[in-house]
Structure formats: C-alpha cells, structure tokens
Design brief:
alpha+beta; Chitinase A, domain 3; seven-stranded antiparallel β-sheet; disordered N terminus
Length: about 250
Amino acid sequence: MSFTTSTFSTSSVASLLVFAILMLVAGGCNDGAIGQKANLSTKADSVSYSLGYNYGRILAQEGIDDLDLANYAAGVFDALYDSVEAISATDRDSILMAFQQELQVKQEMARAAESEKNLKEGEDFLAENRNNEGVVETASGLQYRVIEEGTGDKPSATNTVEVHYRGTLLNGEEFDSSYRRNQTATFPLNRVIEGWTEGLQLMSVGSKYEFFIPAYLAYGDTPPQGSPIKAGSVLVFEVELIDIVR
C-alpha cells in the first residue's frame, strides 16, 4: 500500500471518495462520540458508515491503528476546499514514504514472529502425529494417512488431475473446500504446492488420503494474500483423486 501523493491520481477517485467520507464523518466527532453507535437514519448515513467501516478494516489490516483523526480530517478538508496546505506536497511525500518504510518493518517483524510461533506449533504437531496409527511420513517430511485406497492408475508430476479436497488449519478452521463449492478441481500437478505434487503421486485413482503438509512443503512464509493461512502454517488436506485428466 503506497501513501505518497502520487497515489491519489484520477484513477484513484474511489479511494479518494472513501477517504473523504470517512474523514468528514470523523471530523465531526469528538472523543465522546468515538465508539458510539452510528446514527443511520438516511441512505447517506448508511453509505458513509459502510465506506468508513470498509476502509477502516483496510487500515487495521495494514497495522495503521494510531492515526490522529482530527489532523487526518483537517488534511482532507484542506484538499477538498483548496485551503492553504499545512505541509507541502514534497514534505508530505517524504513523511509518508518514511511512514510506509516504518510500517513495512513493523509488518515484517510481526510476520516473522508469527511464522516462528506457527513453525514451532507445526513441528510439535508433526512430531506427535507421526506416531499416530496409520500415519506414514515420507523422506521429505510429508505425512499422510490412507482413508480409502483406490485401484486406478497413479499420476506423475506432469499429469493434470481432477480432485475433491478440503483444506484446514491445525485448529480445524477450513480455508478451502471443493466439496463446499460442490465442484471438483482440475490442475497440473507441477503447478501446486510441493506437498500436493508429492502426495498426489502416491495415490491411485479412487483413493482418498489425508495429508499433513509442513510449511516448507506448502506456502512457507508467503501464504496467499487475504487467506486465513498464516506464515509458517502446517496444512491438513483431505484429498480424493477422481481422475487423471491427461
């Protein structure tokens, strides 16, 4: 997320509108009003609240939770009504660039701490799980359990396969499921995470396996953006191999 003045080009009208509405509403608040229930008596009230809430979530996700709303609102007001700017464009760019760098460092430190915590939890889980009945561990560290063994062919890494699957975190939270979508998934085996590429080659068509995939065979420290999957997470997949497409 960039914070320099170049961000606010004509192609960013929607973002500007969100900023303006959020800050104009905030500008009318005093300390006593913050946190009170919103007054949603008109359509404009509801639109303002919805835009403000959504942008507030974005700010929270970026780790921006200590803004001075009064000065923020003053900046929006000065820009909207062409008032004399309190800080020049050059200085604003310098300030926001430094802020963005600080924010990136803060986010990287938070990700590193989270990854370390998740890696430790994952290692502990896998160390215990490998001793459970029916669990097999491969040389790479991938663990799996056969739920149902099929009798069809086994795919190679260059094949495209059709599967049904359900993915969960160690706490049981489901982050993806073809069953929930009621539609199988088809993909080349060499275009997925390493744990899938290795694991699916163990399966015959008609099989159903449960995989326990270490972070280094999954997404490591770079999980998909916006996903419930966190850095360093062990992933658990229940996979049914429907067919080898080609």
